[in-house]
Input
Amino acid sequence: MLTVSEVWEKIDSLAPLLPVETVPLTGASGRVLRETVHAPEDQPAFDRAAIDGYVVSLDAPVAATLRVVGSIPMGQLAPAAPAPGTALKLFTGSAVPAGEVGLVMWEDAGLVGETITLRVAPSASFIRRRASQARAGHALLPAGVVLNPGSLALLASVGRISPSVSRLPRVAHLVTGGELLAPEAGCAPGRIRDSNSTLIAALLAASSAALVAHARAGETYAEHIAAFATLLAAEPDLILVSGGSSGGEHDHAARLFASHGFAPVVDQVASRPGKPLLIATRGAQVAIGLPGNPLSHFVCYHLFVARLLARLRGADPASVLRLPLAPGAPLRANPRETWWPATRTADGYAPLPWADSSDLTVLSRTHALLRIPSTAAPEKTAEGMLV
Output
């Protein structure tokens, strides 16, 4: 069996970059930028007021009485600097005149009729200087960044309304098992409701991937063949098969992949939960067979599927971080490396108790997966240690 790190190396080597497309900003959230965006002009492009108040000569003394001779509306060019003994009213965002000028907040300037009396000295610190954020030509966003609300606002501010991004990965999903019922179905002896379809659809949406086809199949190979054909017709970049990745009588994923020309890359991984993992390729297409148990599904998705989707999009996969362990950790040693569901607390990350790889009850509270090496002994874990 390959280790998790070895499977990561395989994934990194087989994931081709998806094509580039341009999209409007309204559809760009979560997409991976495939160009470096430079500032088309200085940011800000002119000296701007950071307050509502008055612009006066910088050397105007405290207690000086000045005549207000006009105002600087937002969106207009700055006039000449006010002459000594005078002031101009301005607003947050107004252009500030050039020269030795300072600003006073309106509440620090006693207004009586058309005159103000300064209660404080004017300050140039209230001026947002031209190019104080970035100069024209400066790289604002590098290629490979995932566009979040902040970066979308930045793009809008410089007029890049149609950024070049990676096409969304096209994913098809087949869920297998004769015991499965639709989620809306009533209970039946020996049957369980299908949770993996909902889980995969939600995980793909969070990974900025498009679910382009979905099918269910029972126990027979003929059913698998028919369902797989509907997935291939959608021309996916990635095919996910839930269940059927072990070596049992009704586990058809490996045979299904081989019969359609997919060459095996991974057939097991030395981790828990999630040992029966299959990865195969056919040209640029990738097929992944996931173990059917939901907790194994969740772990394998975050370890392997999310990594592949990130590589396809040109993004960096999630990093492994070292963070403190919360007190009372119920960790158990195992011959295989374990990726343990954990929840975030004020004291660190606390492992969650899970019964087995079919246990869905912990997933709503899972914020992280703790990587527990196969050599870890529970008695050696301690509050505050880094994991």
Observations:
- The helical segments are 4-14, 149-157, 196-206, 221-233, 253-259, 294-313.
- The first strand starts at residue 20 and ends at 22.
